[in-house]
Amino acid sequence: MWAGCWGAWLVSSALGQSVPIRHDSIKLTPPGTDQTGARFGKSVSVSGGIAVVGAPGDDERGFAAGAAYIYRQMGTDWELEQKLTASDAMEETAFGTAVATTGELVVVGAPRDGANGFASGSVYVFRWDGSSWLEEQKLVPADGAPNEQFGRSVAASGDVIVVGAFADDDNGVFAGSAYVFRWNGTSWRQEQKLLASDGDNGDWFGWSVAVSGDALAVGAAFKSDESLNAGAVYVFQWKVAAWVQVQKLFLLDAQDNDRFGWSVAMMGDVLLVGRPTDPAFSTVPGAVHVLLGNGSLWMEEQMLVPSDGEPGDTFGWSVAIDTNVVVAGSPRHRADDLDSGAAYAFHWDGSSWTQEEKLLAWDRNASDFFGESVGIADEVAFIGGSQIDDVAPDAGAVYGMMFCDSDFDGVCDEDDRCPDTQDSVIVTPSGCPVPEGGCCRGDATCADGFLRKDCEALGFRFLGEGISCGDQDEDGHIDCADGCPLDRAKTDPGRCGCGHADQSFDPMVLQPLNAIFGKVHNDLFLSGDTFWVGEGAETEDGTYITARAYRWNGSTWSLEGNLETQDFVMSVPSGPPPRRALFLDGDTALVGVTEDGANGPDAGAVFFFRRGPNGWEEVQKLMASDGREGDQFGAAV
C-alpha cells in the first residue's frame, strides 16, 4: 500500500540554508493482516520505474520463508504490482534478504535455502513477460555446501548476475566467495567462481557485491590485514574470457572494525564503498568512499561524511548511485531517538560531491533502523527500515522520495521533474521536526499567499519568515510553552527546562543501588515527564527492585519511586547476562526481567505495574506457559 503524496519529509539542506524544494514522498508497508517480523525493507533496489523490496521474514509460505514485493511507478505514484515468493518455498529460507533489478529482471537472494544443505543458499531470477513476473530460474552454485549462505548479496547488470557467499570456506572458515552467472540466451549458466587472491579465515568476502558492465566489486568487510576487521574490496575486470582480479582496495589509515566494504555500489566508472564502522568501537560516524576507475586502476576521488554525523551512526551501511546522485544510509543515527536512522543525498556539481539533503522519516521512532537499505534511480530514492513497527513489530517499511529539483538549483522549473509546478507544494527545509499538524515556513522567493495555500492544503500550520517550526507560540523562543520535548544534550535549544535556548543544563548522574546494576544489560525508557532505568537489587525486606522511575519537576529529575516485586524468584544465571526491557505508557508499565527463575534459571518473566496514589504498584507477574531454563522471556517488551 502507499501512503500518498506529501511534503512531510523532514528535509534539511547541507548548510542549513533555506532552499525551496518539492518532494513527492510515499510510504510503503507490507500488505496483509499479520506482518509481525516480516522485515519488509531489509533490501531494496530501483531501476527503470521498478522498485523491489525484500521481506525475508514474511510468513505466507512458511515461517520466515520470505517474499519480495514489486512496485511500478505510475506517474507520481508507486503501485504494488506483484508479490514474489519462491516456487519451492520452505520455512526459514529468508527469501528477500538481498534484491537487485535491472528493470525487466529481478534477482532475489535466499541465503538460508537448503538446496545444497542447511543454509547453503540460492538465488531466484524473475523476468517480466509483459503482464506478470515469472520465475525464470533458480541459481545454485555447482560446488555449493551447507552454511555458505549463497545469496546474502546479489547484483545484476545486463546479462550478468553476481552472487556473494560470504561463508564459503574454500580459502578458510568464513573466507567467502562470489559467483558470476551469465545469460546465454536460454538460461543462466555459472561462468566463474571468484576468490580473493589473499583470502583467509573470517574475511567475509562476498558480504557485498556490485557490477557494472565489465567490472565488478566484491566486499570483504572483515578482512584483517594490519588492523582487525578493517575490511577490503576486490575489483575484477572481464578480460577476453575470464574475470581477473585487478586490484585490492583498502585503507592506508585503517582502524580496527572499520568494516570497509560492508556495502558497495557501481555505475560506469564510479565505485562506492561504505565504511560504517562497528558502533561498539566507533569514534567516527562512518564514511562512504568514492573511487574512479578506468578498468584496471581505481583511485579514490573523495570521502563522503555526513555534516552532522556522530560516532556510531554507521553512515555507509548502505549505498546507491544514479548518475550524479549518491544516497547513503545511516541506520543508527540518532534523530530524536536511538537508532531511528537517517539517509543522506550527495550531488555531483561538476567538481565535487556535496551533501544536498538529509532525509529522515517524518514519523520516525527509536530502533526503526531507517537507512538500512537504499536505492535510487531517475531522481527517486527509496530508503528502508526493516525494524519499523507501524504495521506490526518489525514489520518494516520503505519510504520513497522523488527529487523534483533534479538539477539541484533550488528552483522547481521546466528543467525539473515537477509534475505540476503551479500546484506543487513548496516546502522550505527548516531542519526541525515536523510535529503532528506540522508547519511550513515562509520564504522570500515565494509569494506568501501561494505558499500559505499549499501549506494549509497539507493540513500544516503556516509560519512567517524567521519563525521556527518548534516555536508554537511564535514568540521567537523555543521554550516550555511550546511543548517541545525534553532534550538530551545541554546545547540543545529545544530543552524544556523552562527557559530559552541560552539556558544551560547540568547533567544528572545516576548511581546504581548495588553491583548487579552494572551486570544487567539495562534499558532506558522516556515517556513525557517520566523516565525509567533498569535495576536489579534486593532490599532488606526481601522485595526485588526491577527498575527505578524518575520524574521531571520543572527544574531537575527526582526519584519518583522503585518498581518493586515480591514475586521475583532468584536464580543462578546459566546463559547470557541478565537483560532488562522497559515499556511505559502513561500510568502503565511493563518490566522484563530475564533472570527470574520461576520456570527455571534464566527462564524470565514480565512484571506489570500501575502508577496510583501510593506510587508504582505491582499488578501482575506474567510468565510463559511453556517457559523453561534459558528462555530469557522478557528480553523485549
If you had to describe this structure to a student in words, what would you say it looks like?
The chain contains 2 helices and 39 strands. It has 637 residues and is mostly beta strands. Among the domains are: 93-361, Methylamine Dehydrogenase, Chain H (7 Propeller), CATH 2.130.10; 516-622, no CATH class. The strands form 10 sheets. Strands 1-26-25-24-23 form a 5-stranded antiparallel β-sheet, with no helix packed on it. The longest helix has 10 residues, at 448-457. It is globular, with a radius of gyration of 26 Å. The model is unreliable at 1-23, 418-439, 441-459, 482-507 and 511-521 (pLDDT under 50).
Task: Briefly characterize the structure.
Among the domains are: 93-361, Methylamine Dehydrogenase, Chain H (7 Propeller); 516-622, no CATH class. Helix content is 2%, strand content 39%.
Question: Which CATH first-tier class of one domain would you pick?
Answer: Mainly Beta
CATH topology of one domain: Methylamine Dehydrogenase, Chain H
Q: Radius of gyration from the CA trace?
A: 26 Å
How would a textbook summarize the main sheet?
Answer: 5 strands, antiparallel
Amount of helix: under 10%
User: Strands of the largest sheet, in order across it?
Assistant: 1-26-25-24-23
Fraction in beta strands: 35-45%
Number of helices: 2
CATH architecture level-2 label of one domain = 7 Propeller
Count of distinct strands:
39
| SS class | mainly beta
- Poorly predicted ranges: 1-23, 418-439, 441-459, 482-507, 511-521
Describe this protein with a few key phrases.
637 residues; mainly beta; Methylamine Dehydrogenase, Chain H; five-stranded antiparallel sheet; 39 strands; 2% helix; globular
